């Protein structure tokens, strides 16, 4: 079957071809298509019946005809050859080398779709990862094995934030990062891809990075494979070679749009905004591949970046992502416009696994309460700021004006930091207490009285 | 034997005459299992519980002759099953970290022997009816498993095994049915998940389910045998709240169905549950807990089935006379699974792509909750708590709006509250409970007759403060009268001192009804005392600076439920604190 070329296409349009008279084709099997010019294209069987087989062509059906199109059914799913040599290499979205170096030769070729992890085999992520970014470490901390997306918007510095996390991420007490990085870009611009490549080069980690690139001008349908190929590589590195793998993927919005494009071609019933009803399941297949496994040393920590269309967090892509991932880091346009970097909007941001990775024995005993107090005080401060915008700051009470100053200082000193500034979590907590000391102790009910006695700088305005 | 004609995602078209809709089928060389959802001529359409990649037209298919059923007997508790009741620990042993396709493992362990004690009232040659208790097995230290006659078996008991150790496969008795057929009895029986288990009749729900969460128990109570929904956008704390309920509620059995949710959350439950003690019995929580897990990356059709597997297990323990709570997280993922299959069948979508039967399926599912008199004359209940995950937090979407019409208790989670880290982020204005009158009776008899009035007073205060807050947001707090400012302050006190409850705070994670009421009464007392002074002309500004207000906000985490004496002392001193101010005020005059 693998070696037979069929020339039985009965229709071709919109990225799909229908093949007749090919019995017994496996669903999900990989297909190779040779067009009239002799060029090879890749495809996937999406529906298989005895009389008609529906094939999705990654490179599209432009310039295909029915008479001179030869199709081979490879009778296997898409597989990625894996070996230690993938470190330092650059592949395209389907896992073929694109760095001009020889292809990976390995007998170990893995189905890129993976298999669902047994929930009973999972180990709960508990190890605090220090990213050196206060807004993350202090208030939305990341743990090893977590999936924590960055929700962003056009023009916001999500790439710089993601690159900073990659450069600085380490476990507490470790000298330098012992992570390897799997980086996948789909629908990204050449400039974005180059930015990451240069950032990895500068920090000298290039030989610890595997890249999968499907850029904005490359086949759309290949984007559906790109995150899967990347995660297959990550699973191999984590669970076969015991590495701690940090996976950064950008941009999930481009992925979902590719999925929608294919769904429309197939005639799937649309659910919200034209996205197919299975968008949730499909995203989950990707995100849920992050994690830890009992009795295995390695881990996969996943940071998908997605741009929210018109900054709308209720758009199906961020919305469904938020339901699957363990929190989200939200970047805010207003902060960014005020020149705050990284512009992390802390209130809508969240890390679900934070509670189990911080505090005594992990970071510092006051960490959980400090985080909770910062959230409460900043939320209150924003309320006051809203009020001040209406009635004017002069009309505010002294207590309220103190909150205004707190908000300002919090945004500048706690959230804001340098792109190369790598703060330890203790520095982060100390800054937090400096700021909380701007507020009177009785306004701080989320921290305990002992913590107030130990850390509060007493009364008003140490800043 | 039939064969595969077509493969389309999770749906396969089979040449398989004489199958019944709902029947289980085994398909392909690797033996994937699924169920028939339609017939057309000689062909049958089936949805498979596992990924269909690699399946080819022409491969074999066979009907198994029974609908999707669960095994009911000892070995259920303490277990974690997937959406079609495969025990995930056994699957792990057999197929490794990843769930291989076509794995077949029996739901209940076949090699384990259980100590069976026959019911002393059962005698040979006496009539036996469906649901009758044959005997008991002490399954865990806190749960006595009653071995039930399968509901549809009626006849004469021929013999019943003596006390001893048996596996679930061994015959423990025989029944001669009315039609003369002899039926063997085992420690377990099977029941089809899509058919509700029979009972004698429905009863009124009378007792509240105590969850230890003040916003739930005190403000929006749920009864044992009731139906509740927890809708909320992502990040609003839905999962935490459900885990708190699963941890602390005073049900005897808790069934947690993770339907299309995160894998790590289940791991969290699996890891922390065994360490925790049931506050009501002192035994490890896992002994009364059963998990059904179909995480979001597991196949979608099994996700649809998992909810029914869960509710059938719940009904089975109800039939043994237990109060069961089933938490379904999340019904939205179940509805989406329904939508996905409907879409592939080409059924006409109505709202947001959902099929027209969404509402009736949801209603039929929630109707399986209730407090009943069981076939054996006992009382048992199934309380159903469904999480809803509305897209974009929009409560007008189809799943939320249909659910809202069906349930009686609505715990609406709010993104705004969660963003301000006010947990549990249950919105006190959007939530409702239809069970307040019944719950009031219980609180009056068991805690304090003042409960219903106090609850209403606190809710009024909260509603009023919401109005006032709107004014403040427009023109600032200075525009309010002293009385209004005090109301605002008291509402803040209730929000922070009563409604906020940190799951991670050991002292306050669970609050007994007594503690809940003591705090409620205390904060209302502060409000009333202050209001009295304000009405006499005292300035609210002065009152707001009282240290008592900051102290009262901490009471909840300073006093354990088991030891309320110190709290009651503090409460008794409230009037004195205000008297001091009244005194100062009388001396220095109204200008203060």
What does this protein look like?
The complex is a heterodimer of chains A (463) and B (592). Chain A folds into 3 domains: 5-76, Thrombin, subunit H, CATH 2.40.10; 80-357, Rossmann fold (3-Layer(aba) Sandwich), CATH 3.40.50; 367-455, no CATH class. Chain A is of the alpha/beta class. Chain A contains 13 helices and 22 strands. Chain A has helices spanning 134-137, 158-168, 190-202, 226-239, 252-266, 279-287, 316-324, 333-337, 354-357, 367-391, 398-415, 425-436, 449-455; strands at residues 5-6, 9-13, 16-20, 30-34, 40-49, 52-57, 70-73, 79-81, 90-92, 109-111, 122-123, 128-130, 142-143, 150-152, 170-171, 179-188, 209-215, 244-250, 291-293, 299-307, 327-330, 350-351. In chain A, the strands form 4 sheets. In chain A, strands 9, 11, 14, 16, 17, 18, 19, 20, 21 and 22 form a 10-stranded mixed sheet that branches. A 7-stranded antiparallel sheet of chain A has the order 1-7-4-5-6-3-2, with helices on one face. Chain B is of the alpha+beta class. In chain B, strand 1 (2-8) and strand 2 (11-15) form a beta hairpin. The mean pLDDT of chain B is 92. The chains are: A alpha/beta (463), B alpha+beta (592). Strand 5 of chain A pairs antiparallel with strand 1 of chain B, so a sheet runs across the interface.
Topology readout:
The complex is a heterodimer of chains A (463) and B (592).
Chain A: E1 5-6, E2 9-13, E3 16-20, E4 30-34, E5 40-49, E6 52-57, E7 70-73, E8 79-81, E9 90-92, E10 109-111, E11 122-123, E12 128-130, H1 134-137, E13 142-143, E14 150-152, H2 158-168, E15 170-171, E16 179-188, H3 190-202, E17 209-215, H4 226-239, E18 244-250, H5 252-266, H6 279-287, E19 291-293, E20 299-307, H7 316-324, E21 327-330, H8 333-337, E22 350-351, H9 354-357, H10 367-391, H11 398-415, H12 425-436, H13 449-455
Helix pairs in contact in A: 6-7, 10-11, 10-12, 11-12
Chain B: E1 2-8, E2 11-15, E3 23-27, E4 32-40, E5 43-48, E6 60-67, E7 69-72, E8 80-81, H1 88-95, E9 114-118, E10 126-128, E11 133-138, E12 144-148, E13 155-160, E14 164-166, E15 173-177, E16 182-185, E17 189-192, E18 201-203, H2 214-219, E19 227-231, H3 238-248, E20 253-259, H4 263-272, E21 289-294, H5 300-319, E22 323-329, H6 331-344, H7 358-366, E23 370-373, E24 379-388, H8 398-406, E25 409-410, H9 415-419, E26 432-433, H10 436-446, H11 451-475, H12 482-499, H13 513-535, H14 540-544, H15 547-558, H16 565-572, H17 574-588
Parallel strand pairs in B: 8-21, 19-24, 19-25, 20-21, 20-22, 22-24
Antiparallel strand pairs in B: 1-2, 1-6, 2-5, 3-4, 3-6, 4-5, 7-17, 9-11, 9-14, 10-13, 11-12, 13-15, 15-16, 18-23, 23-24, 25-26
């Amino acid at each position: 079957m693998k070696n037979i070329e069929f020339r039985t296409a009965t229709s071709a349009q919109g990225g799909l071809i229908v093949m007749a008279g090919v019995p017994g084709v496996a669903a999900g099997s990989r297909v190779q298509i040779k067009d009239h010019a002799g060029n090879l294209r890749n495809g996937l069987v999406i529906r298989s019946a005895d009389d008609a087989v529906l094939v999705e062509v990654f490179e599209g059906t432009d310039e295909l005809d029915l008479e001179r199109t030869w199709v081979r059914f490879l009778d296997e799913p898409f597989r990625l050859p894996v070996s230690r040599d993938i470190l330092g290499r650059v592949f395209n979205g389907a896992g073929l080398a694109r760095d001009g170096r020889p292809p990976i030769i390995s007998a170990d070729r893995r189905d890129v779709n993976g298999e669902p992890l047994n929930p009973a085999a999972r180990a709960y992520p508990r190890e605090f990862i220090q990213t050196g970014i206060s807004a993350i470490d202090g208030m939305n901390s990341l743990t090893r094995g977590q999936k924590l997306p960055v929700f962003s918007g056009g023009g916001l510095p999500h790439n710089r934030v993601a690159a900073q996390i990659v450069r600085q991420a380490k476990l507490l007490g470790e000298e330098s990062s012992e992570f390897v990085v799997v980086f996948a870009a789909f629908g990204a611009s050449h400039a974005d891809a180059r930015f990451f490549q240069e950032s990895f080069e500068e920090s000298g980690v290039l030989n610890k990075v595997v890249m999968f690139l499907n850029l904005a001008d490359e086949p759309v349908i290949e984007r559906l494979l790109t995150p899967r190929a990347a995660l297959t590589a990550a699973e191999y590195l984590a669970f076969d070679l015991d590495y701690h793998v940090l996976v950064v993927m950008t941009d999930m919005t481009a992925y979902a749009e590719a999925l929608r494009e294919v769904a429309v071609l197939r005639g799937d019933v649309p659910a919200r905004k034209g996205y197919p009803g299975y968008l949730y399941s499909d995203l989950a297949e990707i995100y849920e591949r992050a994690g830890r496994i009992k009795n295995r040393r390695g881990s996969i920590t996943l940071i998908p970046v997605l741009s929210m269309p018109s900054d709308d967090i209720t758009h199906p892509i961020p919305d469904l992502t938020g339901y699957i991932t363990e929190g989200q880091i939200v970047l805010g346009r207003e902060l960014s416009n005020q020149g705050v970097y990284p512009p992390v909007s802390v209130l809508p941001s969240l890390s679900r696994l934070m509670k189990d990775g911080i505090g005594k024995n992990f970071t510092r005993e006051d960490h959980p309460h400090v985080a909770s107090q910062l959230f409460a005080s900043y939320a209150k401060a924003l309320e006051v700021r809203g009020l001040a915008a209406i009635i004017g700051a002069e009309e505010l009470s002294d207590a309220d004006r103190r909150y205004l100053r707190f908000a300002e200082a919090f945004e500048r000193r706690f959230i804001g930091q340098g792109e190369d500034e790598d703060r330890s979590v203790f520095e982060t907590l100390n800054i937090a207490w400096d700021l909380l000391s701007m507020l009177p102790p009785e306004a701080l009910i989320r921290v305990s009285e002992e913590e107030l006695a130990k850390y509060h700088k007493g009364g008003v305005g140490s800043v | 034997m039939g064969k595969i004609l077509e493969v389309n995602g999770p749906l396969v078209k089979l040449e398989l005459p004489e199958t019944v809709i709902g029947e289980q089928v085994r398909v392909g060389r690797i033996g994937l299992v699924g169920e028939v959802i339609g017939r057309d001529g000689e062909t049958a359409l089936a949805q498979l519980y596992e990924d269909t990649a690699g399946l080819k037209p022409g491969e074999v298919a066979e009907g198994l002759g029974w609908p999707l059923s669960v095994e009911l007997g000892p070995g259920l508790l303490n277990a974690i099953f997937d959406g079609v009741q495969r025990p995930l620990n056994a699957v792990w042993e057999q197929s490794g970290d990843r769930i291989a396709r076509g794995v077949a493992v029996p739901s209940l362990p076949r090699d384990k022997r259980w100590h069976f004690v026959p019911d002393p009232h059962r005698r040979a040659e006496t009539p036996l009816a469906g649901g009758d208790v044959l005997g008991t097995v002490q399954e865990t230290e806190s749960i006595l498993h009653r071995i039930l006659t399968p509901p549809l078996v009626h006849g004469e008991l021929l013999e019943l095994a003596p006390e001893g150790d048996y596996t679930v496969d061994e015959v423990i008795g025989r029944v001669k049915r009315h039609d003369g057929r002899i039926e063997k009895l085992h420690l377990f029986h099977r029941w089809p998940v899509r058919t509700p288990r029979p009972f004698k009749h429905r009863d009124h729900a009378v007792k509240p389910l105590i969850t230890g969460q003040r916003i739930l128990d005190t403000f929006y109570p749920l009864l044992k045998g009731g139906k509740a929904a927890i809708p909320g956008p992502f990040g609003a704390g839905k999962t935490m709240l459900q885990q708190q309920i699963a941890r602390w509620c005073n049900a005897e059995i808790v069934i947690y169905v993770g339907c299309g949710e995160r894998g790590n959350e289940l791991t969290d439950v699996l890891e922390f549950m065994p360490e925790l003690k049931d506050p009501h019995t002192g035994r490890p929580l896992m002994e009364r807990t059963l998990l059904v897990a179909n995480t979001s990356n597991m196949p979608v059709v099994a996700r649809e089935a998992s909810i029914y597997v869960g509710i059938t297990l719940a009904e089975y323990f109800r039939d043994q006379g237990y109060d069961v709570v089933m938490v379904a997280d999340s019904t939205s993922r179940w509805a989406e699974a329904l939508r996905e299959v409907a879409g592939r069948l080409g059924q006409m979508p109505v709202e947001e792509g959902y099929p027209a039967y969404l509402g009736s399926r949801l209603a039929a599912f929630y109707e399986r909750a209730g407090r009943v008199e069981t076939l054996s004359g006992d009382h048992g209940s199934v309380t159903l708590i469904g999480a809803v995950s509305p897209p974009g937090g929009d409560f007008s979407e189809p799943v939320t709006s249909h659910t809202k019409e069906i349930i009686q208790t609505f715990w609406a989670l709010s993104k705004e509250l969660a963003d301000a880290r006010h947990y549990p982020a249950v919105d006190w204005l959007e939530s409702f409970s239809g069970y307040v009158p019944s719950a009031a009776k219980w609180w009056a008899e068991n805690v304090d007759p003042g409960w219903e009035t106090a609850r209403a007073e606190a809710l009024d205060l909260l509603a009023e403060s919401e109005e006032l807050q709107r004014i403040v947001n427009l023109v600032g707090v200075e525009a309010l009268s002293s009385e209004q400012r005090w109301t605002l302050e008291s509402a803040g006190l209730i929000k922070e001192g009563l409604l906020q409850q940190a799951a991670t705070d050991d002292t306050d994670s669970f609050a007994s009804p007594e503690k809940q009421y003591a705090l409620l009464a205390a904060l209302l007392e502060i409000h009333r005392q202050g209001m009295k002074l304000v009405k006499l002309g005292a300035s609210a500004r002065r009152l707001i600076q009282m240290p008592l207000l900051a102290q009262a906000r901490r009471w909840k985490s300073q006093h354990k439920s088991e030891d309320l004496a110190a709290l009651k002392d503090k409460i008794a001193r409230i009037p004195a604190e205000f008297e001091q101010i009244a005194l100062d005020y009388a001396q220095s005059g109204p200008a203060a």
